[in-house]
Model the fold of this input.
Amino acid sequence: MAYYGIFGLLGLSVITLLAGIVLVPLWIVRLPVDYFSTQKPAPLPWSLHHPILRWTLLVGKNTIGMAMFIAGVVMLFVPGQGLLFLLLGLSLMNFPGKRRLERWLVTFPKVFSVLNHLRAKAGQPPLHPPLPPPQTRAP
Done:
């Protein structure tokens, strides 16, 4: 009976590893080069559709994002691309401060170089580095 838990974790590890090998590079290659260097992201392609369709797609996107984020946390402890899956999950979810968090994660040289390495392997131009946050003046 105790073996079911071990086989379940092993299966989850294999599935997340395979999904990471396929989905993460595909997502990174499809990013626009200025994704991290612009202050405001481009509008979503379905933002002009019927509200019911828009909300359905938004809930689905956030659900998939949360699942990928949780898988990324799991992959920090089991084989897989944990940090990249975390970034992918975060990019799919909508929450306050998301843009700032994504840009902060990409400021780490290792993360940024891995993203650009995957893009180079697919023949895509490198991502533009994130711009520093705008300075606010103290009153």
About this structure: Residues 17-33+46-121 form one domain.
